Known about the structure:
binds L-homoserine, alpha/beta, elongated
Amino acid sequence: MINVAVLGYGTVGSGVVEVIEQNKAIVNKKSAAELNVKYILDLREFPGDPYEDKIVHDVNVILEDEEVSIVCEVMGGVGAAYQFTKQALEKGKSVCTSNKELVAKHGPELLELAKANNCNYLFEASVGGGIPIIRPLNASLTAEKIEAITGILNGTTNYILSKMEKEGADFAEVLKEAQDKGYAERNPEADVEGHDACRKIAILSSLMMGKNVDSEKIVTEGITKVTAADFMYAKAAGCTIKLFGMSKALSDDEVLAMVAPFMISKEHPLAMVNDVFNAVFVTGNMLGDSMYYGRGAGKLPTASAVVSDVVDCARHQGKSILCFWDKEEVKLADVAETEKAFYVRATADAKAEIEAAFPGGKVLTVEDRSKDFGYFTPVMKEKDFAAKCEKLGDKVLSKIRLA
Ligand code: HSE
C-alpha cells in the first residue's frame, strides 16, 4: 500500500480524493500498488464529509509519518506551500502539485531537492489543467529540439474572449457574467492581466530550454483593453483574438517569450480553441508541429493530472525521474527589438495620419462604424510601432499584435 496525503481540501484537493476513489481500480492497477489517502490537511473542519476522519490541521502529522510517501500540494500560493513542499521533499516524500506559482518561482530548487532525496517533484497539473503537456515535454519529445511553444494557457480569459466574440459584448460585461457563473474569480487580476498565463509559459519555456526562464522578466499584457469593436474588425479581416503565451528558443541561452493578446487568422490551429479550453502548440525540429488540447481548468481535469503524477511517483518509488530544468538563467530577448505586424483601431479623423505613420498597411472597415476604423500595419519593430503610437496619442483607440 502507498499512503498519500493531500495538502488543501479545496476544489482541486477534493477532486484528487474523488479521482483516487472513483477510479480506484484503474489507478491502483497503473500504480502497481494500492493507493490510500491517509491524510487531508486543511485548516477547516468538514463535518459530515465522507473523508472527515482523514482531516488533520497540523502538517507535522504528515511530515512525521514515515508511512506517507506521496504528498499532493494543492493549496496554492508560495508561502506555506513552499515550506511544506521543501519539508516533504527533505524527508524523501514525493510531491505532486497543481501550484503553477510555486513551480514557476522555485521549480529548479525543488527539483534539485527532490533529486537529492531520491524522490520526485511533479507538476503536470500546473500547466493546461488536465492536458498532458509537462510529461510530453519531459518524457515523450525527448528526441526533439523544441524550437517554439505557443499556448492558450488560461481558461478564464479564453472563455471571456470567446464570449466577447460570440455575443459582441464588451470585456467588463462578460467578466461580470463569468464571475456570476463562477467561471472567473472574484479577484480576476491574475487571469485577466495575464499573470497566470505568464507563470505557465515560464514553466513550459524552462522545460523547452532545460534552464530557468524567470517569469518576472516575461513581457506580460492581459486582455482588459480588448473591446467588442476590435472583434468586429477582426471578424472583417477573417481573424479572431486570443491571449497567447508564446516562447521561441533563439539559441541555447536565449529565449523570446511574452504573454499578450494576438489577432490571429481563423485558419490558425489555435483559433478553434474556445471557451474554457486550453491548447499548447509545440514545434520540434524533427516532428514539426504538434498540438495538445483539452480542459485547462476545473476540479476533475486538474485533479486527474495531479493523480497521474501520483501514479508516476508510485511507479518510481525511491527513484528520481529525470527532469531537465537547471537553475541557470536563460537570457530573455528584448521584445521591443522584435518585428511583427500590428492591428490598430483609430478615430475616423486620423485616417490620413495612420496611413502616413504606417505606409503600406491595410484599412479595415465595418459597416455602421463611422467613428473609427481598423488598420493592419506592415511588419515593423515593436519599438518603432510604440513610438509612432505615442505620437498619435488619443487617436489610437486599440492596438493588438498580429500573429
Ligand atoms: N485560473 C486558471 C484559468 C485556472 O482560468 O485557466 C487554471 O490554472
